[in-house]
Amino acid sequence: MMQKAVANLNEDEIQALKNRWLGVTLKQQFDYLLLWKIAGVVAIIVVLGFLRYRELSTLNRKISESNQQLMTAKRELELLSTTDHLTGIANRKKLDEQLIREIYRTKRYQHPLGVMLVDFDRFKQVNDTFGHAMGDRLLSQAATIFSANIRQSDFVGRWGGEEFMLICPETPLASLEILANNLRQTIANSSFETAQVQTASFGIASYQPGETMEAFWQRADKALYRAKKGGRNRVEVAS
């Protein structure tokens, strides 16, 4: 009778009975293994990221140190290329650069600019009598005297041999002549290792509008020549 009753049921009725009596309960269980796997992967990524960060930081520090060393070496090289190795003051290259810079400033601001060339008198006799080493020490001492007795705005360098150049910005010719005579007297009164009186001759010039750098220092050079021919230990002013 039950079988007959079931046989008379249609598909919808059968499905309704199944849904009523054959219900399935789904019970979810937390997957701790999957959690540990995810945590492990995250930990590996964090460790690798930290190691990479330390590697990059070390590399950046080394690059920064290398750049600093390069900048220091560059400054030292520039200093060496513009410094006279004997006297420690500016060399001819640096004097040219400084003189050009001051001429540009003079043209722009219409300020006076003076230059003086200094040559030690009878320097060859010092080398012949006491040797070149003594001559070198005399030049080094002369550089010290110039550096200690010029104004902060002035610039001194070794022009070549026993000649020095002093660049004097914003200095009228009259003031330039006073400064040159003071330096000349200071040299004559200084005690050099030769135990002899050392003197120097000066040729000075004031910049003229439109003048080239070469024409400027050449006028001072001609004045220096006149000082040497006129008896030495004197100051001659360029025309």
Produce a short descriptive summary:
With 239 residues, this protein is of the alpha+beta class. It has helices at residues 2-7, 11-21, 32-81, 92-109, 123-130, 132-149, 173-189, 213-229; strands at residues 113-120, 155-160, 163-169, 200-206, 235-237.
Structural write-up:
It contains 8 helices and 5 strands, in the order ααααβααββαβαβ. The protein is an alpha+beta fold and 239 residues long. It folds into 2 domains: 29-81; 92-237, Reverse transcriptase/Diguanylate cyclase domain (Alpha-Beta Plaits), CATH 3.30.70.270. The chain has a 5-stranded mixed sheet with strand order 2-3-1-4-5, sandwiched between helices. α5 (123-130) packs across α6 (132-149). The relative contact order is 0.11. It is an enzyme of class 2 (transferase).
Structural class: alpha+beta
Q: How much of the sequence is in beta strands? A: 5-15%
Q: Which percent bin holds the helix content?
A: 55-70%
Shape: rod-shaped
The helix count comes to 8
Spans with pLDDT under 50 lasting ≥5 residues? none
Count the E strands: 5
CA-based gyration radius:
45 Å
By CATH, the architecture of the largest domain is named 2-Layer Sandwich
Q: What distance separates the N and C termini?
A: 147 Å
Strand order of the largest sheet: 2-3-1-4-5
Which topology of the largest domain does CATH recognise? Alpha-Beta Plaits
Mean pLDDT: 89
The biggest beta sheet is recorded as:
5 strands, mixed
- Report the top-level CATH class of the largest domain: Alpha Beta
Order of helices and strands: HHHHEHHEEHEHE
